[in-house]
Amino acid sequence: MSIYLGLFEFEGPFVEPDDMKDESGVYAILHFVDNEYKLLRCGERDSLRKWASRVKFDEIKHRLPGKMLLTVYYTNFPKEARKSIAKAISEEFRHEARVSYLIKPILQAVS
């Protein structure tokens, strides 16, 4: 399945990190509740699978009602370019990220 965020086509949603490729790219964590998707967090990593395997998604799901989706945009762009993509997506969807404060401590622990 594809999920478009801005101009970028993200793959997913992924349930298990092992289902992801061990490649660099940009990730987006989305929250689906009340028939709407909200962007919780967007960032980049050199190894998306390695990063996702360290995130405690069960803790995030426990704190939020609804469904959480992990999507990724694989790219071998340099780190600065990936950061720019994540920043642009975050800024575009910033007004929708009302619940991100609930998961920030969990995600900071694995940054």
Task: Give the SSE map.
Blueprint: E1 2-5, E2 8-14, E3 25-33, E4 36-45, H1 48-54, H2 57-63, E5 67-74, H3 79-92, H4 104-108
Antiparallel strand pairs: 1-2, 2-5, 3-4, 3-5
User: Helicity level, as a percent range?
Assistant: 25-40%
Q: How many DSSP helices?
A: 4
Low-confidence stretches: 97-111
Largest sheet: 5 strands, antiparallel
Strand order of the largest sheet: 1-2-5-3-4
Number of domains: 1
What share of the residues does DSSP label as strand, in percent? Answer: 25-35%
Concise synopsis of the structure shown:
The chain is α+β, with helices and mostly antiparallel strands and 111 residues long. The chain has 4 helices and 5 strands. Strand 3 and strand 4 form a beta hairpin.
Your description of this structure?
It is a single chain. The protein is of the alpha+beta class and 111 residues long. Helices cover 30% and strands 34% of the residues. The protein is built from four helices and five strands. The protein has helices at residues 48-54, 57-63, 79-92, 104-108, and strands spanning 2-5, 8-14, 25-33, 36-45, 67-74. It has a five-stranded antiparallel sheet, with helices on one face. The longest helix is centred in the C-terminal third of the chain and has 14 residues, at 79-92. The model is unreliable at 97-111 (pLDDT under 50).
Key terms for this structure?
30% helix, five-stranded antiparallel β-sheet, disordered C terminus, alpha+beta, 111 residues, 5 strands, 34% strand
